[in-house]
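User: My collaborator sent over this chain with a note saying "see what the structure looks like." That's all I know about it. Can you take a look?
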Amino acid sequence: MLERINQIHDEAVAEIESADTAAALEELRIRHLGRKAELPNLLRGVAQLPPQERGAVGKRANEVRRALEELIESRSAALEATELDARLVTDRVDVTLPGDPPQPVGRLHLITATRREIEDVFIGLGFDVVEGPEVETVFYNFDALNHDPAHPARSRSDTFYVDDDTVLRTHTSPMQIRAMQQWPPPLAIIVPGRVYRPDSDATHTPQFTQIEGLCVDEDITLADLKGVLLAFARAIFGDEREIRLRPHFFPFTEPSVEVDVSCFNCARDGSPCRLCKGSGWIEILGSGMVDPNVFGYVREHGYDPEKVQGFAFGMGVERIAMLKHGVPDLRLFFDNDLRFLEQFG
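Assistant: Without extra context I'll predict from the sequence alone. Here is the result:
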């Protein structure tokens, strides 16, 4: 019996030491130490041996069992370490590789795409693109643009004040003055950028994008303004569009006009038009001839109101995008919902 136990020990040790995977080692554990294995059965049969053999056989069988258990545990730890090292090599992630599956290439946000489309139209008409500070002085934002001291836009409920003399600009119009201070006439610029007003609803947000336009030269008339805006409307909304000018009031233009574009949505499906409400016209921007008082602030820079004239206009990029793409709520532009944004590629 002792000879067989020693034989089991030698065979098991050789097999365990040669096991090269955790799975193979587990099979050997079951074969040599499992409930149906020979060694455990020998231990269970010790009581049936003659009394003089029981002690020696039982002691040796237990020694072999413990020795095999320790050897299996040691070999298991070594195999796990080896397999872990192998997995670390084979499973290494190269963070410089594209995702799997590859993520689609990004696209311009609809507001950015619309802004660039508008810029391209006016660049084609001979305008330059300039930008200015978003934190502006009261002088450039209101005073130099002919805003009366009691104008409602100056109130703290309509404008974000940084301090008594500094505001978050409410329009990009301050660049009219800054540009005329920097460059003599003739001048034709557009000024895109973010502006800020304390409004928040389906058609207003506290921050939005505006494009201001200014053209100054000798003999500029309202007809020039209409021609430029007609070209813009047809480039953005379609070649069949017409525009109309309606009297209005803006502090820095005289005369001032609201500009409407002929509806591009009517009769598409035979139902009443939700855009123009049946009028056939959609308001798109405000404009007018530059008020001579504005030129008075830059007279020393070559803008004598007796010699030069000009026109100005301003539009909201979000409004143009809403109209062109049928977006019902301005806030959708800022919710960052990919289901919405991915519609515009």
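A starting point for your reply to your collaborator: The chain is about 40% helix and 20% strand.
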